[in-house]
Design brief:
- By secondary structure, the chain is mainly α.
- It has one domain.
- It is about 75% helix and about 5% strand.
- Strands 1-2 form a two-stranded antiparallel sheet.
- Strand 1 and strand 2 form a beta hairpin.
- The protein is globular.
- The termini are far apart.
């Protein structure tokens, strides 16, 4: 995994350096709900903001398995953990490439592109959520899932479905809704994907405790 992430980080840096001279002095870094730029950062930090964030996030992911407490270990070589980490880093790489394209003047709608990327991210993460062991860092970490391994397993089995459904809703619904309403689609789908498992974890925990 370290080698693969290293290659991804290298691609991000090389891509930035290749077009650096063509980028504007003020690099777009944030867009409003209508897909319009409402935040910029000057060179040299602006163009390298996302690669730096990718590197920091990578370090965090590498440290997490080492600092996990006993009984809540994250297996660094576990398939689910590696898949989720790679998906997040690839998501950020795609976001960086699109940001570079926008800065270079290409007609990309961030109001649609970012939700589609987010939808894909949720679908892939949902595919692996049910395989993530109980831990304090990744997954639906409520007091009830952390207190009981069976509640964790059952909650993440449901969360896998809600994340995938929510991701599909975003990836398909955002382009259909257009720039003006894409954010509403994202908000509704994310709330569905996240809140349903949280409520479910409480319900099944209370049911098990009362037995």
């Amino acid at each position: 995994m370290k080698f693969a992430i290293g290659i991804i980080l290298l691609v991000a840096v090389v891509a930035t350096m290749a077009v650096y001279s063509q980028l504007p002095e003020e690099m777009p870094t944030h867009w409003n709900a209508a897909g319009e730029v409402d935040g910029t950062m000057a060179k040299p930090w602006g163009p390298f903001l996302l690669p730096v964030m990718m590197a920091i996030l990578t370090l965090i992911f590498l440290v997490l398995p080492r600092i996990s407490p006993r009984g809540y270990e994250l297996e660094a070589r576990g398939r689910a953990f590696r898949a989720i980490v790679m998906t997040v880093i690839l998501f950020m790489l795609a976001l960086h490439v699109i940001t570079l394209a926008v800065a270079l003047g290409h007609p990309v709608s961030m109001g649609i592109a970012v939700p589609v990327l987010l939808g894909v991210l949720l679908v892939v993460m949902g595919n692996y959520l049910s395989k993530v062991p109980r831990n304090f860092f990744i997954g639906v970490r409520t007091p009830w899932t952390l207190a009981d391994e069976d509640v964790w397993f059952r909650t993440h089995r449901l969360a896998a479905r809600t994340f995938m459904l929510g991701g599909l809703a975003i990836a398909v619904g955002a382009p259909l809704a257009g720039d003006e309403h894409a954010q509403s689609v994202v908000l509704g789908a994310v709330m569905f994907a996240a809140l349903v498992p949280v409520i479910y974890s409480y319900a099944i925990y209370k049911k098990e405790v009362s037995q």
